[in-house]
Amino acid sequence: MTQQGFKDRGALITGGASGIGRATALSLARAGAAVLVMDLDELGGEAVVSDIRREGGRAVLAVGDVSRAVDCSDAVATCAGEFGRLDILCNSAGIIYRSSVVELTEEQWDRTMAVNVRSVYLMSKYAVPLMAQQGGGAIVNIGSGWGLSGGRRAAAYCASKGAVVQLTKAMALDHGDQNIRVNCVCPGDTDTPMLRGEAQQLGEPIDRFLSSAATRPIGRVGRPEDIAEAVLYLASDAAAFVTGTILLVDGGGLAGTG
Question: What is the 3-state secondary structure (H, E, C) of the chain?
């Protein structure tokens, strides 16, 4: 992607204060996009915005909860007001509880579904009309390899990411005639604060947990930038004929699963 590959485009990234969201926000800004970072983490979000501005890019922060309709609506309105348009929506916000259905509380189940699935619905609900009005756009949802193949002690997370995969396909069918492309990136284990938090939930040393996660053909854990590059491709004109696609970016982790 050239430095100006997204010049004059507006992008909104949820979960943009850390991990994959942060890497995506930085990468889009470096490629020329004006970026709105949405996150509950105000300090982390401000740091990302400052980094983008320090490099000469345009960025604003929207502090909000992606599971609340008013916050999602306000973020889309802010993006339109600040940048004049919304061309790219990346739904990156996510949460995980490492529990089986027996161990999981109802509150944890509901919160997982709210952050991982409801947020995609809400952000898209408000973004799609704006994109349609301006002639099109690209939505990239962040799923998971565990949305395609289940994992142990992550019941709510697997269910939520499976829902994101199917929601992506349904939205691609619904909005293709509005020139809105909807795709999903499914990462494997990626070295983010969320992955490190999983180690703590499971009571495992972080180094050992990351070493175990690196057992895949490529031989390492993913980097947030690996996922960001996939998002940039799907959001770019290079993917103009790509919609409804589930792009697995996992270093080959699921290659032998059939």
Answer: CCCCCCCCCEEEEECCCCHHHHHHHHHHHHCCCEEEEEECCHHHHHHHHHHHHHCCCCEEEEECCCCCHHHHHHHHHHHHHHHCCCCEEEECCCCCCCCCCCCCCHHHHHHHHHHHHHHHHHHHHHHHHHHHHHCCEEEEEECCHHHCCCCCCCHHHHHHHHHHHHHHHHHHHHHHHHCEEEEEEEECCECCHHHHHHHHHHCCCHHHHHHHHCCCCCCCCECHHHHHHHHHHHHCHHHCCCCCCEEEECCCCCCCCC
